[in-house]
UniProtKB/TrEMBL annotation:
This is PALLD protein. The gene is Palld_0. GO terms for molecular function: actin binding; cell-cell adhesion mediator activity. It is found in: Cytoplasm, Myofibril, Sarcomere, Z line. The keyword Disulfide bond applies. Keywords: Actin-binding, Cytoplasm, Disulfide bond, Immunoglobulin domain, Phosphoprotein, Repeat. One of its GO terms (biological process) is homophilic cell adhesion via plasma membrane adhesion molecules. It comes from Brachypteracias leptosomus (short-legged ground-roller). It comes from the Eukaryota.
């Protein structure tokens, strides 16, 4: 006797879970549907937030020989976020599964730029000095320091490199020596580019300032430079006479020039 044909509702052998995909990237959802005895073959359709998805330039539906169905979205946009439902149906019924697609914000790439550049700096020997700058970039750039052609790759007790989360970069030298003088270069690098800046550090020999035996005389600014000079005891007329003795041009010790000069 002929065997009576029976129909079975499809079920899923393979289904993906929730997904998080970065905006602009490719998203692929794979699933496989079957029935207990293999017939009849189910049809698959996709919905986003309850609305049917139609194939277009960025949404493709593929079926491989092994029975795996794929929904491919490329590139993913913010409009693609939501609840996806896959429906497998045949004449006996249908079965579904759902997942949530979260679209992460597109990663921003900005080449490093200097907000504040290194400045030429001078320091007296034995004193600390800071070489500072500020850099921005996305993602946060790597920082490299060089003195002349030599890379500074690690911190010491005397020379250390620092940076914070706000883009401030600093090379700190404790007790500068003559050997520290030279050209320093800081470079910032990320996926979008690289930028460099160079400045000079000069280290001066220590010198002792002679002690002041008398308090400097403060000269009140005057609208007349002639009057201001005369207040300091300088004979202007004698200074500009051909036969003037050079001693008339000597400023009295301990006096301070006016800001007007």
């Amino acid at each position: 006797e002929p065997i009576q044909e029976r129909f079975f509702r499809p079920h899923f052998l393979q289904a993906p879970g929730d997904l998080t995909v970065q905006e602009g990237k490719l998203c692929r959802m794979d699933c496989k549907a079957s029935i207990t005895h293999g017939l009849p073959t189910p049809d698959l359709s996709w919905q986003l937030n309850g609305r049917p998805i139609r194939p277009d330039s960025s949404h493709k539906m593929l079926v491989r020989e092994n029975g795996v169905h794929s929904l491919i979205i490329e590139p993913v946009t913010a409009r693609d976020a939501g609840i996806y439902t896959c429906i497998a149906s045949n004449r006996a019924g249908e079965n579904t599964f759902s997942l949530e697609l979260i679209v992460a914000a597109k990663e921003v790439h900005k080449a490093p730029v200097f907000i504040e550049k290194l400045q030429n700096t001078g320091v007296t020997e034995g004193f600390p000095v800071r070489l500072e700058c500020r850099i921005s970039g996305e993602p946060s750039p790597q920082i490299f320091w060089k003195k002349e052609n030599e890379s500074l790759t690690y911190n010491t007790d005397r020379v250390s490199m620092h940076q914070d989360n706000y883009g401030y970069i600093c090379l700190l030298i404790q007790g500068a020596t003559k050997e520290d003088a030279g050209w320093y270069t800081v470079s910032a690098k990320n996926e979008a580019g690289i930028v460099s800046c160079t400045a000079r550090l000069d280290v001066y020999t220590q010198w002792q300032q002679p002690p002041q035996t008398t308090k400097p005389k403060k000269v009140r600014p005057s609208a007349s430079r002639y009057a201001a000079l005369c207040d300091q005891g300088l004979d202007i007329k004698a200074a500009f006479q051909p036969e003037a003795n050079p001693v008339h041009l000597t400023m009295p010790s301990g006096l301070v020039e006016s800001d007007d000069l």
